[in-house]
């Protein structure tokens, strides 16, 4: 998933199981504000909302429902609190019917922010094709992961981040997302009209954890672009910690996609105006050759 922290995943799972903010906080032994803060951080990372009316009568959004289903793939153990059909009405149970026709299953693998990009199109396709069941895998981020999933039949369609066309898997270009650097609004470099990339080497860096898929592709893009940033002073997947330190003026943070969009809208944080743009990240789509015709139809529909 863009590797959110296990704490955030656990809180999301417990929130689904508990059905209310106060009950979730009580079950976890933390405050409702802590629950809301971690869920907001998770939503910021994913690029879409998980719940409607979180503080009142919370219900999963359509994207939140899909995410709850998909996140069971993150763990082999699948703890009991992932029983999303028991979530106090948030996801009503649908008992299987012996007379119901079988549905063709399509597994769509994509980074969570990419799923956020086409979630409405995906919902429309499902509504128009009730004989097709679409399962999400939000654990795929890079080309090697997509190739592995497609090769082993773990996915029928895979979206992934890359810096251009890849040898494996064979893919097509979807769109590009620009990497930007962000710093506190009062940071000297953030207040400049133009900043040379060579000046960034002395600037401390805030970064996601090394195994995070977003961190890996950003590091590769900066390396290819000949951009050297200062050593990380913080490596964390807790975006609220990153935002807090950014606002305090300690370092810069590289981001792209929905996360970069949201950072650019926040008070106290400003995009660093570089003299030349950083390399762009491509979102690419690949298909499993052995997949049925419905897979190609869905892949084309998502490109409309």
TrEMBL record:
Write out the coiled-coil annotation as residue ranges. Answer: none
Extract the InterPro entries matched here. LysR_HTH_N, LysR_subst-bd, WH-like_DNA-bd_sf, WH_DNA-bd_sf
- Start and end of every LysR substrate-binding domain? 104-302
Keywords attached to this Swiss-Prot or TrEMBL record, sorted alphabetically, are: DNA-binding, Transcription, Transcription regulation
One Pfam family here:
HTH_1
Query: Which SUPFAM superfamilies does the UniProt entry name for this protein?
Result: Periplasmic binding protein-like II, Winged helix' DNA-binding domain
Annotated HTH lysR-type domain residues: 6-65
The keyword rRNA processing is annotated on this UniProt entry? no
Similarity section: Belongs to the LysR transcriptional regulatory family.
The protein depicted here goes by the name LysR family transcriptional regulator
Species: Sphingobium fuliginis (strain ATCC 27551)
């Amino acid at each position: 998933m863009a590797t959110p922290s296990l704490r955030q995943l656990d809180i999301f799972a417990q929130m689904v199981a508990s059905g209310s903010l106060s009950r979730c906080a009580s079950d976890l032994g933390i405050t409702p504000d802590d629950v809301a803060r971690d869920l907001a951080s998770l939503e910021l990372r994913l690029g879409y909302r998980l719940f409607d009316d979180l503080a009142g009568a919370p219900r999963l959004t359509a994207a939140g429902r899909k995410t709850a289903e998909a996140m069971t793939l993150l763990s082999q153990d699948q703890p009991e609190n992932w029983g999303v059909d028991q979530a106090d009405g948030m996801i009503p149970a649908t008992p299987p019917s012996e007379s119901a026709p079988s549905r063709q299953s399509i597994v769509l693998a994509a980074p969570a922010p990419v799923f956020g990009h086409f979630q409405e199109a995906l919902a429309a396709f499902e509504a128009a094709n009730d004989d097709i069941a679409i399962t999400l895998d939000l654990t795929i981020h890079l080309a090697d992961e997509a190739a592995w999933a497609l090769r082993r039949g773990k996915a029928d369609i895979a979206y992934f981040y890359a810096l251009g066309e890849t040898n494996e898997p064979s893919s097509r270009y979807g769109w590009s997302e620009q990497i930007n650097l962000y710093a506190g609004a009062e940071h000297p470099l953030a207040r400049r009209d133009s900043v040379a990339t060579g000046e960034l080497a002395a600037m401390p860096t805030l970064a996601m954890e090394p195994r995070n898929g977003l961190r890996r592709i950003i590091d590769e893009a900066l390396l290819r672009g000949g951009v050297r940033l200062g050593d990380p002073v913080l490596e964390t997947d807790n975006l609220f910690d990153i935002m807090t330190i950014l606002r305090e003026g300690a370092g810069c943070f590289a981001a792209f996609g929905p996360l970069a969009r949201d950072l650019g809208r926040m008070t106290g944080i400003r995009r660093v105006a570089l003299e030349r743009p950083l390399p762009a990240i491509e979102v690419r789509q690949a298909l499993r050759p052995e997949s049925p015709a419905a897979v190609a139809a869905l892949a084309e529909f998502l490109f409309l």
